[in-house]
Design brief:
- With 137 residues, this protein is mainly beta.
- It has a domain at 65-133: Nucleic acid-binding proteins (OB fold (Dihydrolipoamide Acetyltransferase, E2P)), CATH 2.40.50.
- The chain contains two helices and seven strands; from the N terminus they run H-E-E-E-E-E-H-E-E.
- The strands form two sheets. Strands 5-4-3-6-7 form a five-stranded antiparallel sheet, covered by helices on one side.
- Strand 6 and strand 7 (125-133) form a beta hairpin.
- The chain is elongated.
- This is Translation initiation factor 5A C-terminal domain-containing protein.
- It comes from Hyalella azteca.
- Belongs to the eIF-5A family.
- Keywords: Hypusine, Protein biosynthesis.
- One of its GO terms (molecular function) is translation elongation factor activity.
């Protein structure tokens, strides 16, 4: 029985939170509060709106975003764009976008306009997001 009385116990967490809820009206000068940030963002490719609330000290994932302009050379029968890079190399792996932008690209191409397509690349996806006249002739 003496062995039981001499047993040592390691400390353990009780699972209690590091914060507790309090009404804003109960906050007092020189008190402490965990501030949260309300973020509203727009998806780069779909235009869908997203919202998030997180502590102001929380780290967020930030995508590496690249933007490049390519000269539109052709539109294939299966709706892929032929885009010329500054080096003169062609890329034919980007589809014409859906919606108004796709209609605008096709219309300008068919009317013989020389345009640049702005391609946005992020998180493994690429898409034409805008056009502008090619003034670099």
């Amino acid at each position: 029985m003496s062995e039981e009385l001499n047993a040592e116990f390691e400390t353990a967490e009780s699972g209690v939170s590091n914060v507790y809820p309090a009404q804003c009206s109960s906050l007092r000068k020189n008190g402490y509060v965990v501030i949260k940030v309300h973020l509203v963002g727009i998806d780069l490719f779909s235009g869908k709106k997203y919202e998030d609330i997180c502590p102001s000290t929380h780290n967020m994932d930030v995508p590496v975003v690249k933007r490049a302009d390519y000269q539109l050379v052709d539109i294939s029968a299966d709706n892929f764009l032929s885009l010329m890079q500054e080096s003169g190399d062609l890329r034919e792996d980007i589809k014409i976008p859906d919606g108004e932008l796709g209609t605008e690209i096709r219309s300008k191409f068919e009317s013989g306009e020389d345009i640049l397509c702005t391609v946005l690349c992020a998180m493994g996806s690429e898409m034409v997001i805008a056009t502008k006249p090619n003034s670099g002739k």
